[in-house]
Each structure stands twice: as structure tokens, then as C-alpha cells.
């Protein structure tokens, strides 16, 4: 029978060197693998941080561009800001409005009576309620009066309109005189 050869590691230096080399190689592979896993994890974390910074930079760029557009728009409208502030007449101009109504009524051959009532705040705007009664007019003069009121520099909102006049018998005889009651509000600025 063939004899099996049993290696004695103590006596056989070559086999021992192979085993030591294999152990060292295995340790190098394990250490390299662990090192690569740690480096990969670190790179992944830093990559996420870089992506977050890029996102923040992108948002800052967008904010900067928006601010730049707003600043440019502000420069283009700044000459008109004072006009916008003065677009509504001030409270002291209500007397001028009263005179304007009287002049308009007279110019269209009618008599008028303007009464200011309470005031109210509507969506941050102050409005003074009023009523106008017009007498001795006809429909054509009424339309002309309303058109002139619409073209006046005042912001007026007519809330109700009531026309009364002669009966059908008088209309048939040619009389066309009517009376008008107008309720509305004029918007004013609180600054004087």
C-alpha cells in the first residue's frame, strides 16, 4: 500500500510559507474590502451633501434672479408710484365732488340734491355713501349726466337707481319729465 505522506508544518518550511502567504493575502483582501466599503460609504455621503448644496445653490440663484427682476420692475414703476398714491381723491375733495354734481346737473338742465351718508371700509378702501336726487330731466339728459359722471376723476359706484315720472297719460300728451334717485358710494383716500 502506498503510504500517505503527512506534512509536518514544523519541518516543512515551504508549506508553511504558502499558508502564511495565503493568510496574509486573505487579510489584505479583507482589509481592502473593508477599506473600499468605508470609502464608498464616505463618497456616497459626500455625494449626497454635494447634491444638497447644488440644490441650495440652485434655489439661491432662482431667488437672486427673482429679486433682480423685482428690482428692475420697481425701477420701471417707481416714477408712477406717487400717481398711484394719489389716484383716489382725499376726504377733503368730497366738497369738490358735491360741486361737480351740482355743475353737471345744471349743465344738463336739471336740479340736483346730493346728500352724503355713512362711510364704510370695503376691502381696505374707504367709501362714502351718498344719494343724489335729480329733478326736471328727461331720459337723454339723464344718460348724458351719467356718462359725464362716469368720465369724472372720481371713483363712483352706483348701487341703486330709481326713475319715477309722469304717468302714461302724460307721456302720450308729450310730457317726458322724470325724477331720478341715485344711491352710490365714492371711494376716497384717507391721506390728506
Describe, in short, the structure shown.
This protein has 192 residues and is an alpha+beta fold. The protein contains five helices and four strands, in the order αααββαβαβ.
Question: Sheet bearing the most strands, described?
Answer: 4 strands, antiparallel
Structural class: alpha+beta
Indicate the radius of gyration in whole angstroms.
46 Å
Low-confidence stretches: none
Q: Order of strands side by side in the largest beta sheet?
A: 1-2-4-3
Termini separation comes to: 127 Å
**How much strand content do the residues show?**
15-25%
User: In percent, how helical is the residue content?
Assistant: 40-55%
Helix and strand sequence? HHHEEHEHE
Question: In DSSP terms, counting alpha (H) and pi (I) runs of 4 or more, how many helices?
Answer: 5
Total beta strand runs: 4
Mean pLDDT: 84
- Apparent shape: rod-shaped
Description:
With 192 residues, the chain is α+β, with helices and mostly antiparallel strands. The chain is 53% helix and 24% strand. It is built from five helices and four strands; from the N terminus they run H-H-H-E-E-H-E-H-E. The chain has helices spanning 13-77, 81-85, 94-107, 139-151, 168-172, and strands at residues 111-122, 125-137, 156-165, 178-188. Strands 1-2-4-3 form a four-stranded antiparallel β-sheet. A hairpin with a 2-residue loop joins strand 1 and strand 2. It is rod-shaped. The mean pLDDT is 84.
SSE topology sketch:
Elements: H1 13-77, H2 81-85, H3 94-107, E1 111-122, E2 125-137, H4 139-151, E3 156-165, H5 168-172, E4 178-188
Amino acid at each position: 500500500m502506498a503510504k500517505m505522506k503527512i506534512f509536518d508544518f514544523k519541518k516543512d518550511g515551504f508549506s508553511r510559507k504558502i499558508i502564511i502567504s495565503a493568510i496574509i493575502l486573505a487579510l489584505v483582501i479583507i482589509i481592502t474590502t473593508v477599506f473600499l466599503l468605508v470609502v464608498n460609504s464616505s463618497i456616497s455621503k459626500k455625494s449626497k451633501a454635494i447634491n444638497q448644496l447644488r440644490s441650495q445653490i440652485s434655489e439661491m440663484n432662482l431667488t437672486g434672479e427673482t429679486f433682480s427682476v423685482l428690482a428692475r420692475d420697481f425701477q420701471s414703476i417707481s416714477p408712477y408710484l406717487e400717481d398711484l398714491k394719489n389716484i383716489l381723491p382725499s376726504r377733503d375733495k368730497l366738497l369738490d365732488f358735491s360741486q361737480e354734481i351740482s355743475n353737471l346737473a345744471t349743465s344738463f338742465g336739471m336740479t340736483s340734491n346730493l346728500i352724503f351718508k355713512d362711510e364704510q371700509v370695503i376691502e381696505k378702501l374707504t367709501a362714502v355713501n351718498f344719494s343724489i336726487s335729480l329733478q326736471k330731466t328727461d331720459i337723454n339728459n339723464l344718460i348724458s349726466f351719467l356718462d359725464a359722471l362716469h368720465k369724472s376723476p372720481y371713483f363712483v359706484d352706483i348701487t341703486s337707481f330709481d326713475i319715477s315720472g309722469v304717468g302714461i297719460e302724460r307721456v302720450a300728451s308729450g310730457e317726458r319729465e322724470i325724477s331720478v334717485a341715485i344711491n352710490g358710494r365714492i371711494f376716497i383716500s384717507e391721506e390728506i
